[in-house]
Amino acid sequence: MAKANWVKVNPSQGSGNATVNVSSNGEHTGRVARTTILTWKAANVADIQRTVNQAGKPEYVDIEDAASADKAGKVVTISGVSNSKKLTFSFGTGNLTDIVLPSTYMANSVSTSNGANINGDPGAAAEYNFSISITVPANDDITAKTRQIIVTDEAGHQDVCTLTSAAGDAYVTIAEGDIELDYQGTPVAVEVKSNTTWTIE
Predict the structure, then answer these.
(1) Confidence at residue 190, expressed as pLDDT on a 0 to 100 scale
(2) For residue 30, what are the contacts with CB-CB under 8 A and spacing of at least 6?
(3) Which value, to the nearest 10 degrees, does the dihedral of the CA atoms of residues 110, 113, 115, 117 take?
(4) Which are the contacts of 19, defined by CB distance < 8 A and separation ≥ 6?
(5) What CATH class has 61-165?
(6) How far apart are CA 51 and CA 45, in angstroms?
(7) Could you tell me if 112 and 20 are in contact, meaning their C-beta atoms sit under 8 angstroms apart?
(8) Phi, psi at residue 123, to the nearest 5°?
(9) Could you say which of 13, 26, 31, 57 is the most buried, measured as most Cβ atoms within 10 Å of its Cβ?
């Protein structure tokens, strides 16, 4: 049985006494340990096999620190990596309250229900990419709004992305036309629509 391509031996051949360094080609990002066999071969000698085990990486989740939408609104896709069996998304603090948390997200290119086990458990063998898309409506306020997007792995580790909706343009609108008062000066209602402070001089 050939050794797995993730294991590295140096030197891979020699003569007489020697020290062989066994390592891996890089970090093992899966949660579950991986195993391979090294086989020493020599003429007129029975093969000698040794098992090599590389420990799995502790469960983790890592999401973008920040994401943003312009004042006109848009669908914002927030990405990250994990090796967890399942991920759960939730809202944290913030005043961007007119957004809805999707019921599904993409994990390892497969649509997955929020909080459900990921099909095939790709994180057992290696880290995988995930993303969630959130529709952010237009922001008519003159101040930016934010909301925390929290992702939690099966072991309870959390990471937070702050989603920001850019400030809208200030506006003041008054109905078209003259304001007509009668001779007695009876008050006439004038409707002002605005999202900012204003004065009449």
Answers:
(1) 83
(2) 56, 57, 83, 123, 124, 125, 126, 127
(3) -50
(4) none
(5) mainly beta
(6) 19
(7) no
(8) -70, -15
(9) 31
Q: What is the dihedral of CA 30, 32, 33, 34, to 10 degrees?
A: -70
The residue type at 6: W
Q: Report residue 1's pLDDT band, with 50, 70 and 90 as the boundaries.
A: low
Q: What is the pLDDT of residues 154-182, one digit of tens each?
A: 999 999 999 999 998 888 888 888 878 78
How is the chain split into domains, by residue range? Answer: 7-54, 61-165
Inter-residue contact 118 to 134 (CB < 8 Å): no
Q: Of 37, 73, 39, which Cα lies nearest the Cα of 54?
A: 37
- pTM of this prediction exceeds 0.70: yes
Work out the mean pLDDT of the chain and round it to a whole number. Answer: 93
